[in-house]
Specification:
Blueprint lengths: L2 H23 L6 H18 L9 H21 L5 H26 L5 H29 L11 H22 L5 H19 L7 H23 L2 H24 L4 H6 L24 H9 L3 E6 L1 H6 L2 H13 L3 E6 L9 H9 L6 E3 H4 L8 E5 L8 H4 L18 E6 L19 E5 L2 H14 L1
Parallel strand pairs: 1-2, 1-4, 2-3, 4-5, 5-6
């Protein structure tokens, strides 16, 4: 082995170690930033060392391609609002799947020296990468508001099943044809795979987007790992395997947090109406509005307040005002905690990222299992922009679409204040029993504005 290959293999090994350690550090909010840096350094090293590969051609085109991808991504990452982070992640994850599929396309078209194993892995990577790419683009369109509702039609699941079978059949035929496979056959194969990814994602409602994003992240990692085998690139194999396994575990955890199997997320169409109409039986009780001054009195003289953020807080960009309100309450001797549901927001960890951006200390943030027992001793629970994750129907109504889903037990607090723009249902279209409970009061208005009014009123007391 000459010095170039030895250096390449050594750097790839180092990059793989950095990927694994970086992912490990990302498991905790305290070390997540460092984990991202470590993994990023590993990726830079793996990219740079590739340029000394013997007989590497088209270096100019490679540099141009890197610049075309890196510069806009850097610019967009600096400018993206936190409310748009889920769709940005969906888009970039789709790009990873598309890149893996593109590698597969090149290798399948070349085809001359491929073994049966290599060609089979290329086809598998092509299928998975194509589905991840087109599915992630649809997820991006939904989260960005470019698609206002999900698309459901009669016989949709049967059509999707047929497309999947056709995709697998064409893939098997491409493998059988080997180097004789025509470009037309390969392109039709990719086209059907891309179409399947689109049609599979169209009926999925916005309420399930955290699980969908996590699932496509796992698929992208798996596709990259397969293409790493095709290219004999250990860095790609290890990085793809780590991302794929982590994404799979996260997908399972997210589905468990909703008490629904992944198959139900993909094929039930739950949340497809996007809040256009309520689902289930009518709710008993009435909505009881409250003004900011009365709400401020409740929280200022409480012993413990638990704040439950949701996607509405992200939309209102209210996290900074909420943190200012929290500090004002703490200065008055009030114990304040934040309760985070695993599927709150539009991506895994969305609320944690928002609170971290505002500077909320990690020791004030609790997950569902840690905080639920404390609600009975909580004087006031403040729900800001959250909906389904605090809906008691998940415990009480067997006919509710969310029945059995673990929720934050906000209804067990002595008092509940819900900050909400209006009277409509949440993203899933399900009416929330909590809003009509005897101990709940509705503070209507923009989340940031209402948090500011609460802050002002607390300071005046």
């Amino acid at each position: 082995m000459n010095w170039q290959l030895l250096l390449i293999e050594s750097v790839y090994f180092l990059a793989a170690v950095l990927f694994i350690l970086g992912l490990k550090k990302m498991s905790s909010p305290v070390t997540a930033r460092g984990g991202i840096v470590w993994a990023g350094v590993g990726m830079v090293l793996a990219t740079l060392v590739t340029f000394i590969t013997p007989h590497l051609g088209n270096i100019g085109l490679i540099i141009i391609a890197i610049m075309i991808g890196a510069l806009p991504a850097w610019w967009l990452a600096l400018r993206v609002a936190m409310t748009d982070m889920p769709q940005m992640i969906a888009l970039y994850n789709g790009m990873g799947g598309g890149a893996a599929a593109s590698i597969a396309a090149v290798e399948l078209i070349k085809g001359s020296s491929q073994s049966l194993t290599v060609q089979s892995l290329a086809v598998l990577g092509a299928v998975i990468g194509s589905i991840s790419f087109s599915g992630s683009i649809i997820a991006f369109a939904k989260l960005q508001g470019l698609m206002k509702r999900s698309v459901i039609f009669s016989g949709q699941q049967i059509l999707n099943l047929l497309l999947f079978i056709i995709t697998l059949g064409l893939g098997a035929y491409v493998i059988y044809q080997g180097s004789s496979a025509s470009i037309t056959l390969i392109m039709v194969f990719f086209g059907i795979a891309l179409l399947f990814g689109i049609l599979m994602t169209l009926p999925i409602g916005g309420a399930d987007m955290p699980v969908v994003i996590s699932l496509y992240n796992a698929l992208t990692g798996l596709a990259v790992a397969f293409e790493g085998f095709v290219l004999s690139n250990p860095a790609m194999i290890i990085a793809g395997t780590v991302v794929g396994s982590a994404g799979t575990l996260l997908t399972q955890l997210m589905a468990k947090a909703m008490n629904r199997p992944v198959s139900n997320v993909l094929f039930s169409g739950f949340g497809a109406k996007g809040g256009e109409e309520a689902t289930g039986d009518s709710v008993q009780g009435s909505l009881k509005p409250i003004d900011a001054t009365d709400a401020a009195i409740m929280i200022a003289y409480a012993e413990q307040v638990v704040i439950i953020p949701g996607y509405g807080m992200a939309v209102a960009q209210a996290q900074h005002k909420v943190w200012e309100l929290t500090k004002a309450l703490i200065d008055r001797g009030v114990r304040v905690k934040f309760a985070i549901h695993p599927v709150a927001g539009r991506m895994p960890g969305h609320m944690n990222v928002l609170l971290a951006e505002a500077g909320v200390p990690y020791d004030l943030i609790s997950d569902l299992d840690e905080i639920n027992e404390e609600f009975e001793q909580t004087d006031v629970a403040i729900v800001i922009g959250a909906n389904d994750v605090v809906n008691p129907a998940a415990r009480k109504k067997a006919d509710s679409p969310i029945y059995g889903m673990p929720i934050l037990n906000a209804d067990k607090a002595k008092n509940v204040i819900v900050i909400k723009r209006g009277r409509g249902t949440g993203f899933s279209g399900i009416e929330n029993d909590l809003f009509y409970a005897d101990n709940t009061h509705m503070l209507y208005g923009d989340g940031q504005k209402m948090a500011g009014e609460l802050l002002s009123a607390v300071k005046e007391l």
